[in-house]
Amino acid sequence: MKLEENSQPVVETKQPDTNCEITPHYDEVMGYVEMPISKGYLDKCIPLVNFIETYQGEGPNCGKKMVLTRFKYCNLACPFCDTQKYTKELVPTLYSLKDVDVLLKTSPNLMITGGEPTLNNKVASDNELSQLESTIHMVRNLNYEFLDIETNGFNMPVLLNECDITAVERGKNINISWSPKFITEADREKNYTTLKYLISHSGYTVKPVIKIVIGDDMKEYEEFIYRAVTHYNFNSNRVYLMPKGTTYEEINHSMKRVLNVAHDLSCNVSSRLHILHSFA
Ligand code: SF4
Q1: What's the pLDDT at 231?
Q2: Which of 61, 66, 90, 168 is most open to solvent, judged by the fewest CB atoms within 10 Å of its CB?
Q3: What percent of the chain has pLDDT over 70?
Q4: CA nearest 48: which of 110, 105, 140, 107?
Q5: What's the pLDDT score for residue 1?
Q6: Exposure pattern of 214-246 as b/e (b: 16+ CB <10 Å)?
Q7: Which atom of ligand 1 is nearest to the CA of 183?
Q8: Given this model, what pLDDT does residue 34 score?
Q9: Judging by DSSP bridges, how do beta strands 173-178 and 109-113 pair with one another?
Q10: Beta-carbon contacts of residue 39 (< 8 Å; ≥ 6 apart)
């Protein structure tokens, strides 16, 4: 299948990195802090915009019913952000972990999204956990059947390490979806650093996927995913391309470009049900 479409970025190719490590290094993750879970941790408050029962609208688990927990703060300020009106808001919006745990009894799949859930901000009172702490508490302690975490990659080593320990020791089914953002030069460097980290730490049980939006004016995102697959040898079966747009017409238009790139790279596509059908 080949649809009419525009030019593709030219990228160099090279052999896979032969220095790949094949085993995790739980004790070597920079910034990793052991966080003992205190008695009564379920009473701790977490900085969420909201938590609701809904369906995953995109990516590898599209259509799955989930309890969505949307964290409040983010380290970035993307102009297209649908959570941004909350991310810079300084007044905490707090829910207890117990509230989330109760909802999981009837709806057992948990989605952690943002804002950036691994932002290690410290705010408010002693009873409030930072977003990173909250996420780690949720990964370790809540009674979900399946866990889907969405991140901009800000703290990937810590997140991956924590998820892998839980997956290995407790047999939990966990997916990490990484959606890199390209707003500043620093983001660009950070994204390539994160990509190299994933390539060189391929021995983790949890295998993060890259979920990325493609559109006519998203050249940098497109080039990144070409480089990730063809230059860095990131597994194309763990890449999900999604169409840019906020209306049916825009998404339909961008899907042509998505299909062309997916064809070239032999990767996956996903629509965006939450936008097409207006659910959270
Ligand atoms: S990374 Fe996500 S949550 Fe943060 S500003 Fe960008 S779009 Fe919004």
Answers
A1: 97
A2: 90
A3: 80
A4: 110
A5: 43
A6: bbeebeebbebbbbbbbebbbebebbbbbbbbe
A7: 6
A8: 52
A9: unpaired
A10: none
| 100 close to 67: Cβ distance less than 8 angstroms | yes
* Residue type, position 225, single letter: I
Strands (E), 34-98: 45-55, 65-71, 94-96
> Atom 3 in ligand 1: which residue has the minimum CA distance?
115
In this prediction, residues 207-224 reach a mean pLDDT of 96
Determine contact, residues 195/160, Cβ cutoff 8 Å: no
Query: Which mutation among 72, 84, 274 tests ligand 1's pocket best, with the greatest number of atoms within 8 A of CB?
Result: 84
Q: With bands split at pLDDT 50, 70 and 90, how would you rate the model's confidence at 92?
A: low
CATH superfamily of 21-276: Aldolase class I (3.20.20.70)
Closest residue by Cα to atom 2, ligand 1, is 115
Edge to edge, the sheet with strand 209-214 lists 94-96, 45-55, 65-71, 109-113, 146-151, 173-178, 209-214, 239-243, 268-269
Compute the distance from residue 181 Cα to the ligand 1 centre, in Å.
8
Residue 251 in contact with residue 227, Cβ under 8 Å?
A: no
pLDDT tens-digit readout, 106-143:
999 999 998 899 998 665 566 778 889 889 989 988 99
Q: What is the pLDDT of residue 89?
A: 62
In 154-274, which ranges are E strands?
Answer: 173-178, 209-214, 239-243, 268-269
